[in-house]
């Protein structure tokens, strides 16, 4: 069974590789942007799910960690000439002017910077719980955004950064997604994953068993922030322009939609949630344009797609609050139920 599953996984990855080669040759720029966004949102959804769904910490600060990653990566790959032209309100910090790295290095450093900020925030914040934790992380996210606006020598303030090299392509975004999936699967199958679930389900019982629950929560929060920083960096290099308004609380709400729709605690659910939420948000743009319905002209209403999507999200929470996957994960055994049942019986018999 393990050999069969490994072969099927290899074929699935090969099929994905073929699609990534085929897509740029046959799809337009808009479709490629959506496909890239699906991968980036999946990375961000997985990182938030690690914090919220798998560790049980209600966090509303993911947009702030995305901002840290996006700005760190952009500042590291912009050329000196671009920086000189861009900083018009105040001169750029001298030590930052000639700082330059490759895109891959900037991704890693963006994740590490977000993880460092997340670790510093987690030390006081994770002593709270429930709604108080969500409010505190929301406050820190807003603090990060305000700092970005006011630290003009470092971030160019409210003007943001433009002309960022478009390094994010399908190979890069889906390569990072596969790496994230591999890490998440190995993490949740490890002993740390079992400890994380124990802390989430009953922190008092876990503490009684000798588990340092605070340290476990801090580590999970920091790892989730690393993923948020990488996702923010990929987003910035896809859009090629960033500013503080991109990282408001609405960005975190979009990621929460992905996690909730897919299923709290499910790796597969985060990926499916990303596909559904990203495509649905784009498809619903038509309701913001004038519509001719049976001879009746209906004017477009800006922001209406978010209203409709919010209603759909409420319906999901009411009628299937566990999300699409719940806590389940995809398995190739679903396609071979009889063989899986037979092998399970054999294992029990032994």
Fold and architecture overview:
The structure is a single chain. The protein is an all-alpha fold. It has a domain at about 10-250. Helices cover about 70% and strands about 5% of the residues. It has 16 helices and four strands. The protein has helices at about 1-25, 30-55, 60-75, 80-85, 95, 105-125, 130-150, 150-155, 170-190, 190-200, 205-210, 215-240, 250-260, 265-285, 305-320, 335-350; strands at about 160, 240, 290-295, 295-300. It has a two-stranded antiparallel ribbon with strand order 1-2. Strands 3-4 form a two-stranded antiparallel sheet. A hairpin with a 2-residue loop joins strand 3 and strand 4. Helix 2 runs antiparallel to helix 12 (about 215-240) and helix 3 crosses helix 12 (about 215-240). Residues about 345-350 have low confidence and may be disordered.
- Strand ordering within the main sheet: 1-2
Q: Which regions are unreliable across 5 or more consecutive residues at pLDDT < 50?
A: 346-350
Gyration radius (Cα, Å) is 22 Å
Distance between the termini: 17 Å
The average pLDDT is: 85
Strand content: under 5%
DSSP helix fraction: over 70%
Query: How many beta-strand elements?
Result: 4
Order of helices and strands: HHHHHHHHEHHHHEHHEEHH
* Backbone shape: globular
- Largest sheet entry: 2 strands, antiparallel
Structural class: mainly alpha
Count of DSSP H/I helices:
16
